[in-house]
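User: I'm putting together notes for a lab meeting next week and I want to include a structural view of one of the chains we've been expressing. I don't have a solved structure, so I'd like a prediction I can at least talk through. The sequence is below, exactly as it appears in our construct file.
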Amino acid sequence: MIITGIDLGSYSFKMALCEETAEGLELICLKEIAADGLKKGAIVNMEKVVTALDKLIYSVTEETGITIKECYVAYSSEKLEAFNSDGVMAIDLRGKGRAITQEDKELVVKQSEAIPISDDKVIAHTIPLQFAVDNNEQVKDPINMVAVRLRAMSHIIIANGTLLNNIYSAIKRCGLMPLALVYSPLAAAGVILSSGERENGTLFIDIGGANTKLSFYQHGNCYFNYTLPIGGITLTGDLAYMLKISFELAENLKIKHGFCYKPLLEREDFVYLPGNADSNPRSVSEHYICDILTARMSEIYSVAKEVMHNKGWLAYTNSLVIGGGGNELPGSAELASKIFDKAARNGYVSGLEKLASNERGSSYGSVLGLCKKNIMTNIDKPIEKKEILGHNKKTGSTPLKSDSFNLVKWVKDFF
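Assistant: Thanks for the context. Below is the predicted structure for the 415-residue chain, given as structure tokens.
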């Protein structure tokens, strides 16, 4: 079975084709193209997005000879909200109790979604965290347990309905059926975090181009999500401003000579910078470049630490994993470890067959994570797929309701 993932990132759009085999999930093709028409995760120019995606899809189809009809899509946005919510229901009103069924489990999770949200928002994801069966807390699966009362704690992610509708429409205009829209850190964590890290209190810091996503995992599930409106583009902008060079030159300088932890620099080398309207040709120290990048990365980590403290999750955090494009900046994990005073490592993709070393970078985590497992059940039923996505079969439009895009089954199966 061929599985297709598309990641709409700030810097680039990525597309992966994988095949489920007896040995596991095998990568067939991985391509990326410069992002266009997107700003902070939202589509601001539909035509540019569709044009870029068409080129990406054509490139993959041309190389593999595979006709692509459907896909899973990863997205991110600074305007997402996330919190934990409880749902409670009586199993037996007579007080004697009875065995909990699958229907009871699904219903109590649905009860946790009974929250007030504005008309322009939708519930993007509902992740069941744990259940309480009468006085028995932290139950993983309550089915067949006898109880009078059942409670579910769920992690709810709220997104802008227009944002999701536009992404859905863009994919449809490219001739593909979007099976699901997935918040990118959820997909990335599935191939970057180990099972032990997801159990033992790990903060996943996904540093993207436009923003930095914080996701906290314990007991095998994601309990906390938060977005900081700062990412790799800001680092490049700092270099361009401080060195009075173009953004393109600053990006190249960051990639080739950037460090954000000075102890990793063995000696002080210098980099030649060509002259421009604002400055003459000159050389700049790699130590100075490091100072600029370290200042901004320190700010990102310090704010992240403050957020985790204020939200009450820092005390439960035992380790850090750095992902996204920011992970590729040398010293990112070392600096994070110093600021948080906790163990930290650079993330990389695992769990897929035949990956080249350059394909294991955490910047590919989201697109490859989409392919790791089937996200929806019964995906061979087209009508059900349309209904899950809120597709209006009469008009062909895609109105979103508050229960659209819920991926309860996806998260349960994924981890």
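A couple of points you could mention at the meeting. Confidence is low (pLDDT under 50) at residues 374-415. The longest strand covers residues 121-133.

User: Perfect, that's what I needed.
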